[in-house]
């Protein structure tokens, strides 16, 4: 119902729900068009351009894609990117689910839930670059981790693989992105009707059975949202990989940043387009498992 | 892109004031004060102190913009109207000069032209010197005439760039952690330093350091390290890729600070390094040596070029600026940071006897050596790594260069990083 009188020349327009809906969505659509869709279209266009050493030339050629798909480095780097994403996903899910489960079901009072939840967010008050770089002196050859282990007598010589390795990269990723798993999972867990759990227990289910048959299915949308966050963040990252691997490993983000540094914008755009499509396909597959819209 | 704003107060400015007896030349009309020259270049010599001193001595305004070398190349090649003065390296000049965006400079208007060191004129430091490989400055330093787009191999009287700053680079080492003499580039890939070596992740310079190592190992002798064929690039990369897979490298560095941190923390004991980074490690109280090596140095040089669009009063001001640049104050300022000036003898007037002895003649310091910014760099009794100007610049094996196969090399470099 529209409280004000509609204008006489268009009596039914504002009563039309579809029209009002579109009108209300207009501002956000305009913003997304301008800041998201247009830049992506631009990137797609530039990916067909040519580059010389000094300049980029408008054209329509496939050479950027040909080079990309013709080089086995591309496949290796994409594989590496997937590897980082998969391992990071597994760890952030394990840790994130446990933390959220503890907060939602073991902490009884709402006050403590809020306090502990805010505690989780404290590290996020500093920039993630700083949080990442602070691992370097900790993990270094003469760093705190190695000197502590040596003084405890656990090891005789410093562990070299702690820093500038895949281990360091994944450690930093897990540290940086676990909260993105905790928040959505905690959110869905809090909305699980406690009487469902009581009913399950009354029906004789064990703790493990309740977890597997009640809580996990009901938490799936949260897990899925967390997964999308983590996978897209890890696949789009370049700075964590560069710093934590000491520039010795590459992921797709680094390929793009190298191209940009060498002014090869068309080639960078082509790589970005392929990465974007890859990530969209991954998310498309994930969404097949859970209908987020229905569950929300 | 950063625009450097002139600092109002120059720390230790009094120390430099002593040298400013030159005064502004009398020929200048009052309107010179309205002239503003826009200079851009890499960070090395784009110093606020220089712009401030120009204002003091010459009266006009110099606006400085510092960019990385890739952006500098692109801007010089594509936006000739965005600058008046380009402060670029000689290998960049090789790429940019043929575009016609810079104008040739009449050497008869350069007061100290005859005093410019031989490296930039006929390529020879002394008459007996052999000319190093790569883009040696004199090979791209002269053009055929006022409108020349080519390079000529003699002192034609028309210069492409007026040389300003140069140095000889080598490996940096941690003598306390290595504990034995290091004399060859090949030590970078010595398995003794497995997991403790590093190389810089900037392809155009990294490939030259690699070539020095490959030659030193006796694997291959390049006809010209500065202009490799595809096969030579493949061979070089193969040797380094194998070393990388065997865990030779601790990390690669891209920025100055990273190289300092790797060295100071002891993660790396031998790596490619730039001269001011050595100074930065030392100033943390960590021993670090810019090790002279038997095969010689990888050298680089920069100079000032004028935009083709520059005419009239602005061009006169630019010539005056160039003459002032070679007159000694800037040279002294740069030399006290460990770089060299194109006209060393004029810089001598702006350095103490102790500083001149330490930086140029390779003598023992008689007193503490401090940088122009006031940091102590050496104590009495110490000598400069590599010795005198003649010893260091006389042992240059190759110059930073741009290859014909540059794009191929860059792709191979990316593969090396991803390997």
From TrEMBL, chain A:
Q: What PROSITE patterns is this protein classified in? A: ABC_TM1
| UniProt-recorded name of the protein | ABC transporter permease
The record ties this protein, via InterPro entries, to:
MetI-like
| Key words, A-Z | Cell membrane, Membrane, Transmembrane, Transmembrane helix, Transport
Q: How does it sit in the membrane?
A: Multi-pass membrane protein
ABC transmembrane type-1 domain residues are 78-286
Query: Which parts pass through the membrane?
Result: 20-49, 84-104, 110-126, 161-186, 264-290
> Origin organism of this chain?
Roseobacter insulae
Give start-end of the signal peptide: none
Which processes are annotated in GO (biological process)? transmembrane transport
UniProtKB/TrEMBL annotation, chain B:
Signal peptide location: none
- Lineage, uppermost ranks: Bacteria, Pseudomonadati, Pseudomonadota, Alphaproteobacteria, Rhodobacterales
One matching Pfam family is TAT_signal
Q: Which PROSITE patterns match?
A: TAT (PS51318)
The record's InterPro entries line, in alphabetical order, gives:
SBP, TAT_signal, TAT_signal_bac_arc
Name of the protein in its database record: PotD/PotF family extracellular solute-binding protein
Q: Which UniProt keywords apply?
A: Signal
């Amino acid at each position: 119902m529209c409280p004000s009188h509609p204008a006489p020349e268009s009596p039914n327009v504002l009563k039309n729900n579809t029209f009002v809906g579109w009108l209300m969505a207009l501002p956000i659509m305009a913003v997304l068009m301008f800041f998201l869709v247009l830049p992506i279209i631009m990137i797609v266009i530039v990916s067909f351009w040519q580059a010389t050493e000094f300049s980029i030339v408008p054209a329509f050629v496939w050479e950027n894609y040909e080079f990309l798909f013709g080089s086995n480095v591309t496949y290796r780097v994409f594989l590496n990117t997937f590897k980082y994403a998969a391992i990071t996903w597994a760890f952030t899910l394990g840790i994130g689910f446990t933390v959220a489960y503890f907060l939602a079901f073991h902490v009884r009072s709402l006050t403590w839930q809020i306090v502990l939840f805010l505690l989780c967010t404290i590290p996020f008050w500093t920039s993630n670059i700083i949080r990442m770089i602070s691992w370097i002196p900790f993990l270094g050859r003469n760093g705190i981790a190695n000197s502590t282990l040596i003084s405890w007598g656990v090891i005789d010589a410093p562990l070299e693989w702690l820093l500038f390795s895949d281990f360091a990269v994944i450690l930093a990723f897990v540290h940086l992105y676990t909260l993105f798993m905790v928040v959505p999972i905690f959110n869905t867990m809090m909305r699980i009707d406690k009487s469902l759990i009581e009913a399950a227990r009354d029906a004789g289910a064990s703790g493990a059975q309740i977890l597997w048959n009640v809580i996990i299915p009901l938490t799936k949308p949260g897990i899925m949202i967390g997964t999308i966050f983590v996978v897209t963040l890890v696949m789009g990252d370049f700075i964590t990989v560069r710093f934590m691997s000491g520039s010795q490993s590459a992921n797709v983000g680094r390929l793009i940043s190298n191209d940009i540094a060498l002014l090869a914008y068309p080639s960078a755009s082509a790589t970005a387009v392929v990465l974007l499509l890859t990530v969209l396909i991954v998310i498309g597959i994930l969404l097949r498992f859970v209908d987020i819209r229905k569950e929300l | 892109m950063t625009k450097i704003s002139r600092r109002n107060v120059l720390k230790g400015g009094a120390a430099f004031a002593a040298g400013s007896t030159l005064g502004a030349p009398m020929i200048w009309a009052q309107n010179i004060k309205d002239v503003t020259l826009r200079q851009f270049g890499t960070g090395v010599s784009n110093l606020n102190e220089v712009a401030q001193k120009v204002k003091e001595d010459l009266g006009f305004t110099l606006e400085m913009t510092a960019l990385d070398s890739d952006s500098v190349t692109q801007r010089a090649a594509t936006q000739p109207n965005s600058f008046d003065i380009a402060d670029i390296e000689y290998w960049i000049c090789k790429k940019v000069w043929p575009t016609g965006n810079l104008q040739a400079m009449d050497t008869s208007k350069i007061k100290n032209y005859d005093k410019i060191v031989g490296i930039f004129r006929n390529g020879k430091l002394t008459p007996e010197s052999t000319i190093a490989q790569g883009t040696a400055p004199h090979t791209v330093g002269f053009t055929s005439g006022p409108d020349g787009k080519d390079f000529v191999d003699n002192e034609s009287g028309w210069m492409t760039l007026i040389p300003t700053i140069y140095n000889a680079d080598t490996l940096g080492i941690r003598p306390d952690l290595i504990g034995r003499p290091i004399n060859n580039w090949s030590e970078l890939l010595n398995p003794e330093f497995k997991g403790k070596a590093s190389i810089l992740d900037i392809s155009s310079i990294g490939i030259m350091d690699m070539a020095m190592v490959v030659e030193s190992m006796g694997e291959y002798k390049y006809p010209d390290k500065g202009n490799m064929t595809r096969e030579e690039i493949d061979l070089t990369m193969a040797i380094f890729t194998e070393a990388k897979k065997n865990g030779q490298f601790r990390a690669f560095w891209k920025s100055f600070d990273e190289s300092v941190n790797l060295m100071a923390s002891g993660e790396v004991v031998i790596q490619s390094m730039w001269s001011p980074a050595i100074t930065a490690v030392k100033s943390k109280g960590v021993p670090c040596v810019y090790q002279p090596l038997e095969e010689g140095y990888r050298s680089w040089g920069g100079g000032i070029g004028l935009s083709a669009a520059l005419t009239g009063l602005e061009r006169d001001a630019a010539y005056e600026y160039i003459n002032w640049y070679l007159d000694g104050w800037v040279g002294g300022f740069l030399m006290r940071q460990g770089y060299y000036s194109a006209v060393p003898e004029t810089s001598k007037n702006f350095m103490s006897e102790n500083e001149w002895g330490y930086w140029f003649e390779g003598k023992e310091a008689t007193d503490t050596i401090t940088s122009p910014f006031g940091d102590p760099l050496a104590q009495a009794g110490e000598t400069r790594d590599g010795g005198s100007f003649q010893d260091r610049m006389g042992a240059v094996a190759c110059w930073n260069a741009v290859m014909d196969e540059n794009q191929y090399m860059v792709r191979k470099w990316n593969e090396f990083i991803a390997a």
